[in-house]
Amino acid sequence: MQAQSEEMKLTVQQRLTRQKEAVACRMKKLDAKQNEIKKKYSAIQENIERKYEEMRRVLEEDCRITLSLLEMEEKATVQALDDFTERNCAVLSEIEFRLSEGLMDSDIQSGDLVPELEDRVEDLLKVTDPGLVRLDEVKAEQILDRTNNLLLFIRSQTPIVKRLLKSCLAEVTLDPTTAHPKLIISPTQNSATFTSVWQEVPDYEGRFDTTLNVLSLQSWDTGRHYWELDVKGKVYWELGLTYPSIPRKGRQEDCWLGRRDESWCVEFFDGDYTAWHGGKAHPLPVCTQFNRIGVFCSFPAGLVMFFGEDSMTPLFAFCTGTFTDRLHLALCPGHDLQGSNSQPIKICNTSHAKS
Questions:
Q1: Over 60: is that where the pLDDT of 20 sits?
Q2: Are the CB atoms for 292 and 232 separated by under 8 Å?
Q3: Would you state the pLDDT for residue 351?
Q4: Paired strand residues for 134
Q5: Domain finish residue from 124, 141, 157
Q6: Which pTM value belongs to this model?
Q7: CA distance 86 to 134
Q8: Structurally, how many domains does the chain consist of?
Q9: What is the Cα 65 distance to its own chain's centre?
Q10: Is the pLDDT confidence value at 6 over 80?
Q11: Distance CA 175, CA 71 (A)
């Protein structure tokens, strides 16, 4: 009996040893993968920085060459005007000298002096006409036009992150069955507006009844996704992402976005931005009141990120590691605050919003 017990003990020890080795091997591979990813991102970052530095050098060199050309033309025209001025000064000095010295009787009797000088002055005024010296305005306008076109092109391509995120735009609509009874969901299901009237709607299990939230009809568990929401004219709102497990009823604090571990949000109230997750507040040092907010999530990276879409200003990023469930877009338009917050929140990237 004792021998059998020892044998079982040995078997258990061997199994635990194999499991230990398997976990240790996995940890080693995870560490190697982490180092590999860090090296790749570091190389990508350095490459991007070099490209931007190269673009800066190219633009600076082109600016130097363009300004040098304009500077040389300016010097040439100024020199021509200086020559005209010198020739006029010489004749003017001669006239002033003769006036100061007085005219000889012989000069007056001959009558040759004044006509001769008049002819010289007439010729001088013709050949030193300021209108004869002009900038090459056609060339200058062409340079200015091309410079402006280059600027417009660069602006159309930047911010690069905006073009990148636009490629991740995900079609999304709101789910009216989750909306608080004081929210009006538009017929196209792309906007939510507060109403002071408690609407007669079915009391679905998934409907919020203590806080003014509504979730998206769609949810996601893979890939990278981006949404833009119009918050123009509002002084209070909450936007974010949540697992389906967010409480819909009960204590208000449990149902608010970002107050527990199953949701992430950015809140705007009276000019101040705050990021929320797990009940922890992150006040944001942002003063601009944006008209549009971008929301991005990446399942491969476990990332939730918010942007001021007007200028693609990063507001806050949550690095969660991994998501454990599907994600819904979530929003709260807030009370109307005596009319100051009556505007809806509108999804901008649905087919209805684009039309």
A1: yes
A2: yes
A3: 44
A4: none
A5: 157
A6: 0.75
A7: 18
A8: 2
A9: 31
A10: no
A11: 64
Predicted confidence (pLDDT) at residue 146 exceeds the cutoff of 60? yes
Does residue 352 sit in helix, strand or coil?
A: helix
pLDDT for position 107: 54
Query: Do 187 and 304 belong to one domain?
Result: yes
127 shares its domain with 22: yes
Q: Do 15 and 144 belong to one domain?
A: yes
* DSSP bridge pairs for 190: none
Would you state the structure tokens that stand for residue 25, as one six-digit string?
């091997």
Strand partners, 215: 330
Nearest alpha-carbon partner for 246 in 269, 238, 335: 238
Same domain, 94 and 133: yes
> d(Cα 234, Cα 346) in Å, to the nearest integer?
11
Kindly state whether residues 106 and 169 are assigned to the same domain.
Answer: no
Beta-sheet pairing, 236-242 with 263-269: antiparallel
Containing structural domain, residue 55: 1-157
CATH number of the domain at 190, please. Answer: 2.60.120.920
Which residue has better confidence, 114 or 286?
286
**Parallel, antiparallel, or unpaired: how do β-strands 345-347 and 191-194 relate?**
antiparallel
pLDDT at 333 over 90: yes
Query: Where a domain ends, among 128, 157, 186?
Result: 157
291 phi and psi angles, rounded to 5 deg: -85, -25
pLDDT (0 to 100) of residue 353: 40
